[in-house]
Amino acid sequence: MKYIYSTVPALVILGIFLWFSNWIPQTTWEPPKKLQLSADLSPADLARFGETLVKERGCLTCHTIEEGAGERGRGRGPNFAGIGVRPRSTPKYLAESLYDPGAFVVEGYVNIMPSAVAPPARLSYEEATAVVNYLLSLGGRPSVKVGDLPRPAQQAAAPAAAIPAAPQAPAPAEVKAILNKYGCLACHALGGEGGKVGPALDRREIADEAKESKLSVADYIRQSIVAPGAYLAQGFPNIMPADIGDKMTARELEQVVKYLSDGLSK
Amino acid sequence: MPYRDFPLLGSRNVVWMGAELHLMFAAFVLAVPLFALVIEFMGWRSKQERYDRLAHELTRLLPPAYTFTAITGAFMGFSLFTLYPQFMNYMTGVFGPTMWVYPLFFILESLSLYFYYYMWDRLQGDKKWIHVLLGLSLNIWGTIVMFIANSWASFMMSPGGANSAGEVQSLWGAISNLTWWPLNLHRLVANVTFGAFLCSAYAAYRYLGSKDSKEKAYYDWMGYTGNLVGLFTMLFLPFLGYYLGFEIYSFSPQMGVTLMGGVLSWVFVIQAVVIATMFLAAAYYSWLGLSRIPGSEPYRRWVPAFNAILIVGFAVWSTPHTMAATPEEATGGFHPVLSSLGLMAPKMAAVSLILLVLYVSYLFYRRAGKKVKGAGVLNGLIWGLIILGGVAILGLGVHGFFAPAALRIKESIIQILVLLGVILTTFIMDTMRLRKARIIGSPAWGAVPRRSQYALIALAFIIVWLMGLMGYARSAVRLNWHVSGILEDTSPQAGLPALGQAANMTTIITLIFFALLGLVFLFAIYSGREKVPAISGPGIPHQHKEGEDEVHL
């Protein structure tokens, strides 16, 4: 009996732990249920399902939708508030950000997001469309229907593959194909080949211009594609189409930026 | 059939209980030999009989504890094979060869244990080295057994060596997955802490039940030694925990965030409260222990200040980064004030300062009852280093708060190095300083208040409960996956229970464990009384014999 009495203080302490654990918010977690989303749903209806998905599949573990909260340096991922009206927020861009988040990492953040179509979130194509609509609805208008967006290359990737790798050095032929696809070489030259209406893409002065603009070379090139009028090379008029950056997929854009900036740093 | 149900309790609860109980007994039978070997070695080298007797008495707990380890292990295995056959089919497919090797090492471990225990008295004197080697082999086999089992558990969390279809490409890749080594190291050290606190509880019960002053002195000293080892090894646990967290994050940032900032973040609030209670109980025991040393009065006046630092430090530590109660409520937003304390930098500073204060408490205990003349410069240097270390830790914490993440992580490593550097350097300097010490009051073993023993018993209960809770957290981070991203849990119990329910289960498991451990203690007591060696007690100052080296614990 004396041994039991000696244990009473310990049992009281365990009782306090038990009370505390039952007193704090009782977080639970249910496995996500696959939504059956019909192709007939309107973008607005899809956006409503998208909101549920964003909350249930763990997106808000890193992102926030509170205006002003989780700004650079504090949040783990970019703030969703107002994402629907940001210049780059095209449905295609948002879809690609879900399928392959490492293709374009917003400045100031680290490439930590697993593909949303792989475990653990495992969005189906229809669910990804719903999430894109929800994101567009944050400040803007949901506008895509099931079937409008490109499908992910792979619905379920391996966990190792789910963590996107850092962009690899792109092959010159691949970059040349991208540049031809968007007609860039009609005006710009690369490796001595191409037009002369615009500045050459591999001229050494780009590094100095980036420095003057207080940008990294990669950011300067990216900016020059997405918003061509922002920085003009001396002696060249502002005649480049403004929508090239929007037409490119995020991966294509990053391939070009990486190729050109790597070439200049050699 | 992928799953079978267990009536009334449910499959998940049955496996939960079996796994936790087995893990606790396994930790006990791994930790006690390690603890016993170190103590035996110290006794052998310092020629102090009390250490040898203590090690022998600890070893007496092992045979019945092994029996319970085997019983709970078999229970866990049977329940997994019958209730989760598909999962076990997968795991045996991946780890088949290791599952054949595992029992072989277990047999080697058991043989070493029986030789180690039963040959104790025969292998004394000139043959002691053989006995120490036996103890070493027992520990090596036990550690290998643990490492093998850890490869299975860590694979479930961060599978390696398998493709997306879950097919193993390399067995070694599966074993040496990202979290294997962090788990090995964390469990190895945590087991020693666990075993040390349980042995202290055993000593506390014996102390409280003793009427003989010689026995009381011996068990008081045994409880003190266990507590000291427990506290010392605990110093490393926050850092090893961060290492494990770091590798979890490397495997999947989302998993890491789920653990510390997502749905499981409240578990870490509970953890902080539990560890705070634990450190306070350990510090309380140390401070009460000062009362057994005449001449310790000047040190006792620091107790309120230390208490304040510990409480403030724990308040920072237990502040969560995000406070979402439910996924529906979550917006990803942060509290305007508290979220600042919930970041890594202030938490690291708080934990490091708490550990520094506990170390200073220990220094006080060590110095109590001893007077040193002519070592003022050395003493000044020691305090200078400790204060400088504290300021550096705090400064790095403040700087890290404003620094970018990459720099902040580097600074947290510097914080750890500063803390360990200060502790190591000042400990060596203090040992040198105490060589010149004149003893003005030996510890009066056996004269400590009864409430100090309640603190020791409470510490054992707390660490068992904590181990149960964190075991749940490590398992729960997989959410609805048996093997993350490879084998999904589609059973009716897939998902996470409410936190209260998890705490209820942890408490039930803790109580069952202690009921069984009580039997282990009883068997040890009934297996014969140890001849208690002389320890200084009230009115019996410790006699320093010729040829006996003093061991400064």
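qc> Strands of chain A lie at 189-190, 193-194.
qc> done
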